[in-house]
Design goal:
Length: 312
């Protein structure tokens, strides 16, 4: 693909990403996809398999203790079967947790274990099913304070490959975090890295927003500004694309092995009105998606140190 160069390898062996990883298990193919992706992204990290027993927000009348004991036993058995079938050793922790949603449960496990990555499988349900039963991947994205990786359907059946990564970059603080994760991860995997700044075309008519009008952004100025924001980083080239952001990034996912984007942690109202890029990509990305947290001082500092060294 265009605009991709090799990451410098001077400090590649010193970089270790994602040392504690929580993998969401559901007893279905999505859980197996998640395990396969976790093994690739965190080859040296400690994995914890987690299964969330979803409970009602308001308990029903009567004692739920007996029912929960049965569900806990089933959950524990499911986790052990997944650990064995995935050829994971006894050192791989298994955690059964009760929560009001899958995302909330995985977040609790991640918090208790100091995890820096949660990995889940993509939702296989139809649009109606997602509304009625919830979308586990989306729930995890909205609850997590650490990075979240989403494995596409069928990922476990594909040969593991991480030769190229792409990161969505627009100069925002959230995209700086995404760029930091992508740069460090590419270095640890020995992968190629490309940065893409997708600019949404905006038109303005005389009476307000209109379908016909004049584009606000000047392409040349936009490209120059994007390059100025990124600065110099050995091994990373930036390409600016003008077009719908979500569709452009989904198309990019066909060209790389891992797609990285930031999280803006919008409110529920804003997500309904504006939509969420990460939500869309979790359902439409052809490759594994890595959504980074809104803030990550540790990795941004490590990335800036690496950028300063390579600029010398």
């Amino acid at each position: 693909m265009a605009a991709v160069t090799w990451i410098g390898r001077r400090r590649q062996k010193e970089i270790r990403m994602y040392e504690s990883v929580v993998v969401g298990i559901d007893g279905l193919s999505g859980g197996r996809d998640a395990v396969a992706l976790a093994k690739t992204l965190a080859a040296h990290g400690a994995l914890s398999l987690a299964h969330v027993r979803v409970i009602a927000a308001v308990p029903s009348r009567g004692s739920p203790g007996a029912y929960d004991a049965v569900e806990h036993a089933r959950s524990t058995e499911l986790l052990q079967l997944e650990r064995n079938s995935s050829a994971l050793g006894a050192e791989t922790a298994t955690v059964s947790v009760a929560a009001t949603s899958v995302g909330a449960g995985l977040h609790d496990v991640a918090e208790s274990r100091g995890a820096d990555l949660i990995v889940v499988g993509s939702c296989h349900r139809s649009a109606v099913g997602r509304v009625l039963a919830g979308d586990d991947a989306r729930s995890a994205l909205h609850h997590a304070s650490c990075a979240v990786a989403v494995a596409p359907a069928g990922h476990a059946d594909r040969p593991p490959q991480t030769e190229s990564l792409a990161v969505a970059y627009d100069g925002s603080e959230e995209s700086e975090v995404a760029l930091a994760h992508a740069t460090l991860l590419a270095g640890s995997l020995g992968a190629k890295l490309a940065a893409r700044n997708v600019v949404e075309p905006r038109v303005y008519g005389g009476a307000g927003w209109a379908t016909a009008g004049v584009a606000i952004e000047d392409p040349k100025t936009t490209v120059a500004a994007a390059h100025a924001r990124l600065g110099h980083l050995d091994g990373v080239e930036l390409e600016v694309i003008v077009g719908p952001v979500r569709e452009a990034l989904a198309a990019l996912s066909d060209q790389v092995d891992v797609l990285v984007c930031g999280s803006r942690h919008q409110t529920a109202t804003k997500r309904v009105v504006l939509g969420s890029t990460s939500d869309y990509l979790a359902r439409h990305s052809a490759c594994p998606l890595l959504v980074t947290p809104a803030a990550d001082q540790k990795r941004v500092a490590a990335w800036r140190e690496l950028r300063n060294e390579t600029a010398v």
